[in-house]
Design goal:
mainly alpha; 0% strand
Length: 141
Amino acid sequence: MSEFLTFKSRLQLGLMLAGGIAGAIAGCALTVFGKIIAGAPPATLADYVWNMAQCGVLAAVISPLVTWSALRRAPLWRTVVEPLAAGIAGAAAGVLLGSAAVFLLLTPLGMAAAMLRLGHRYREQPLLRHAPRRIEHGANG
């Protein structure tokens, strides 16, 4: 089967897999934080599986789209890991502040901020033009 897949197809499948795994990790963390912020009893296995599956599928779809459209020059591992870490950090900040609104706001804002930072850091740089050299003459010339 791999002989029929182009390099870009294999790369996209790998990015979908990595995005899905990162989304599942985020789903697990958000389940824990969501239960804490809601003051609900601990999550059941079904809660974890459902949230990890939902976040994993969403990330598997969104990850290649964002990477190919906005983060083409960024290292692929950073397009997966940094938004994940920033989203979890935003969720943790909401939990530490004890605010469900902050939790719901900072989670996607953290991810978006990480993607914007990556887009800015790895934006396409224009080619520099060389300025003509000025020849300076000494006292003799």
